[in-house]
Design goal:
Blueprint: H1 5-9, E1 12-16, E2 22-26, H2 27-95, H3 108-113, H4 118-139, E3 146-151, H5 165-176, E4 183-190, H6 193-203, E5 211-217
Parallel strand pairs: 3-4, 4-5
Antiparallel strand pairs: 1-2
Helix pairs in contact: 4-5, 5-6
Length: 219
């Protein structure tokens, strides 16, 4: 004869007793235990999901902080450039309270003695006049200046000579004190490290317009 379902439901399962005996359990007890485990798993899963959400939020915040840090680093670099430029301007102002163009004239014979021809001597003479003209314009507060005194496109190449360095220094000091809203072109001229060390620190942070440089030789 088949068992009644209600009898089967109440059928007891023997489980080990801590005291060495066997504790009887029904299927309902086992189902309740499984349901309790399932609820605990659901609770742990929900807690894990919350932690994952918090972790994701922290990762997003870290990324935002990284971006902000990079932005601050760029701003810091820009400020360092500006501070360096201001320090150079202060040094120039202290030295040039009553400024006059003090770079010494270079005699035409100097270039001839260096083995250059008449045309080259004329070209360098014009170069010096252009430097003086641009320096005076910038020193007088000229805005939106276009400094072309070092632009020798389609002309004889201006070669390095230490005699030119004081004139480059006058130009660099003028640019250093300018409002930084200008344009400078450098073309077909040899600039060695001694000249670059004079000119380029002044250009840093000052030329906000255009800076054109091509066909430059340096050693």
């Amino acid at each position: 004869m088949d068992d009644d379902p209600s009898d089967a439901k109440r059928r007891r399962v023997r489980a080990p007793d801590p005291r060495g005996g066997v504790t009887p359990r029904t299927l309902d007890d086992i189902h309740s235990l499984l349901e309790e485990h399932a609820r605990r798993i659901e609770t742990l899963a929900a807690a894990n999901k919350v932690l994952e959400g918090r972790n994701s939020a922290l990762e997003d915040r870290c990324k935002a902080l990284d971006r902000k840090s990079e932005s601050l680093e760029r701003a810091c670099d820009e400020l360092e450039v500006r501070c360096s430029s201001l320090e150079r301007s202060i040094q120039v102002l202290r030295k040039d309270v009553d400024w006059t163009y003090s770079a010494p004239d270079i005699l035409r014979s100097h270039w001839i003695e260096q083995g250059h021809g008449e045309e080259y001597a004329d070209n360098v003479g014009e170069c010096l006049e252009r430097i003086k003209r641009d320096v005076k314009y910038i020193r007088d507060g000229g805005e939106d200046y276009n400094c072309g005194c070092l632009d020798y496109e389609d002309q004889l190449t201006i070669l390095h000579d230490d005699a030119l360095l004081p004139h480059f220094k006058e130009l660099a000091d003028a640019i250093q004190l300018s409002n930084g809203n200008g344009e400078i072109s450098i073309d077909n001229i040899e600039l060695r490290s001694s000249a670059l060390n004079i000119l380029f620190p002044a250009l840093e942070g000052k030329i906000k317009g255009h800076f054109h440089a091509r066909k430059i030789s340096w050693f």
